[in-house]
Amino acid sequence: QAKEKVWSYPNLKEMAPVKGKRTLAPTDDGPAPPAPFHHRIVTAKQTAVNSLYTVSRTEILGGGRFGQVHKCEEKATGLKLAAKIIKTRGLKDKDEVKNEITVMNQLDHVNLIQLYDAFESKNDIVLVMEYVDGGELFDRIIDNNYNLTELDTILFIKQICEGIRHMHQMYILHLDLKPENILCVNRDTKQIKIIDFGLARRYKPREKLKVNFGTPEFLAPEVVNYDFVSFPTDMWSVGVIAYMLLSGLSPFLGDNDAETLNNILACRWDLEEEEFQNISEEAKEFISKLLIKEKSWRISASEALKHPWLSDHKLHLRLKTQEKNCCSDAQDLVTQ
């Protein structure tokens, strides 16, 4: 089954700097750079996107269940952006995209992709947003030439948790977290931004929210069961992503969707694979605090950020030393 692509970026290397903010060197693994514009509150304009932007027909950055994402440029400023063109067949489709706009209007964080503009016409709505060019995190998992270390995974998961913590503080659930919905800022750094708020929902404690969508292998048990979803639903997905980044394996994936869903409901997963042999105990403990069937027992995004795996600098130094030794051993083997 072909995986659903969301955005995938060609190797374009420009990121317009924000005035007064330092631009990060490619090797800098500090926080992700902010969008090259201030946070805006966007309302869909009833005019054509082409009046203000040049949308590239050839440079397609990716696509998914909604339509396609194209590279585009604002005519007045030359600012490079991404245009997500969403086909809307009826009022229901339009309302769903307007929900995405409303959600993005509330999210101002460096690890969440920012909305710049929106246009509504008869058959589609175009969302113009921040452009980054490092490709999907998914591509790094499956790329054999890209050696993803435990320390890399820590940096990725930390930022995912920071983005999710902000969403949850704003009472918004993402509900579609997966490696395809996490973009790398560029090819060289470990900086990421979460994208695709098409399935995101506002959490209202008094209204019980049930959902029936998402990608089977990333679904939390409560989604599979059509039970109530809440903040821990996103945290289950963080557990799945951490497992995948550390091992390259999908914890619940069966031979077909039914088997995958059964594995999720039985919470059937383990860390016995050889891929976990050299992974720290802290990492294993972190995953085991998220992949729990009972959602109220999972740790929150704030608790995850305080967990030793993400916060213990001594552990991080130890992993760095191990990786250096491992690399030099590999070099020795090559030179022998």
Automatic annotation (TrEMBL):
GO biological process: intracellular signal transduction; positive regulation of apoptotic process
Entry keywords, A to Z: ATP-binding, Kinase, Nucleotide-binding, Serine/threonine-protein kinase, Transferase
Classification via Pfam families: Pkinase
Domain of life: Eukaryota
SUPFAM superfamilies: Protein kinase-like (PK-like)
GO molecular function: ATP binding; protein serine/threonine kinase activity
Residues at which ATP binds: 84
This protein's GO CC annotations: nucleus
Keyword Transferase: yes
PROSITE patterns named in the record: PROTEIN_KINASE_ATP, PROTEIN_KINASE_DOM, PROTEIN_KINASE_ST
Sequence ranges assigned to domain Protein kinase in this UniProt record: 55-310
Family (UniProt): Belongs to the protein kinase superfamily. CAMK Ser/Thr protein kinase family.
Name recorded for this polypeptide: Myosin light chain kinase family member 4
Species per Swiss-Prot/TrEMBL record: Myotis lucifugus (Little brown bat)
Gene, per the UniProt record: MYLK4
